[in-house]
Design goal:
The complex is a heterodimer of chains A (about 110) and B (about 120).
Chain A lengths: L2 E4 L4 E4 L4 E3 L1 E4 L5 E7 L5 E7 L5 E4 L2 E4 L9 E3 L8 E8 L8 E3 L3 E6 L1
Parallel strand pairs in A: 2-12
Antiparallel strand pairs in A: 1-4, 3-9, 5-6, 5-10, 7-8, 8-9, 10-11, 10-12
Chain B lengths: L4 E3 L2 E4 L5 E6 L6 E7 L6 E7 L2 E5 L6 E5 L5 E5 L8 E8 L11 E2 L3 E5 L1
Parallel strand pairs in B: 2-11
Antiparallel strand pairs in B: 1-3, 3-8, 4-5, 4-9, 5-6, 7-8, 9-10, 9-11
Classes of the chains: A mainly beta (about 110), B mainly beta (about 120).
């Protein structure tokens, strides 16, 4: 079945450091890929998305590129801020076997220190 | 505009009891999905409803059931609670059930269920 694997956390960085959170997927068909963010006590918020190979999703300084050849969708940010501290989830949706549900990775806790 | 609202926010039950969780979608949204998020893991899909009909079901036992009402609100019911049912239960709403509306999928803050 479809699955999403992302790097385990926690990831601890100093403010203004470069961030990479790795994510790979397996799927039948061609899913859309997403990064969601969850702040403490809140629900999931869509951070960015990409719907086909080579698409780059971007939002709030975060970027991720849909790489079909490596089945990856790594999240990057050039300069993190303390306010970016949260749990980040990689997810796939709409692939050949799952048209109406999201499949999430286990989440990566990011802690940014001033 | 109000977002997806869930009630209650926290709930404590004992093993063997039954629980009902409630979700009100964003106005105009006709699809509701339920996810279970166990501590330290990603959310797992439980159900999706659209126009009061079940459109998808995840790999959960029959103790889990749900329904959608004419006003598009939804209930998730869990019978014979087990310790392992302790989790954050998230509801999400979207305008339709089509795959291209993932970007219009909005999550509530969840109901934290603790089973003792």
């Amino acid at each position: 079945g479809n699955s999403v694997t992302q790097m385990e956390g926690p990831v601890t960085l100093s403010e203004e450091a470069f961030l990479t959170i790795n994510c790979t997927y397996t799927a039948t068909g061609y899913p859309s890929l997403f990064w969601y963010v969850q702040y403490p006590g809140e629900g999931l918020q869509l951070l960015l998305k990409a719907t086909k190979a080579d698409d780059k999703g971007s939002n709030k300084g975060f970027e991720a590129t849909y790489r079909k050849e490596t089945t990856s969708f790594h999240l990057e940010k050039g300069s993190v801020q303390v306010s970016d501290s949260a749990v980040y989830f990689c997810a796939s949706g709409g692939g050949g076997g799952a048209t109406n549900k999201l499949i999430f990775g286990t989440g990566t806790l990011l802690a940014v220190q001033p | 505009d109000a977002g997806v609202t869930q009630s209650p926010t926290h709930l404590i039950k004992t093993r063997g009891q039954h629980v009902t969780l409630r979700c009100s979608p964003i106005s105009g949204h006709k699809s509701v999905s339920w996810y279970q998020q166990v501590l330290g893991q990603g959310p797992q899909f439980i159900f999706q409803y659209y126009e009061k009909e079940e459109r998808g079901r995840g790999n959960f036992p029959d103790r889990f059931s749900a329904r959608q009402f004419p006003n598009y609100s939804s209930e998730l019911n869990v019978n014979a609670l087990l310790l392992g049912d302790s989790a954050l239960y998230l509801c999400a709403s979207s305008p339709t059930d089509f795959r291209d509306t993932f970007e219009k999928l909005f999550f509530g803050s969840g109901t934290q269920l603790s089973v003792l």
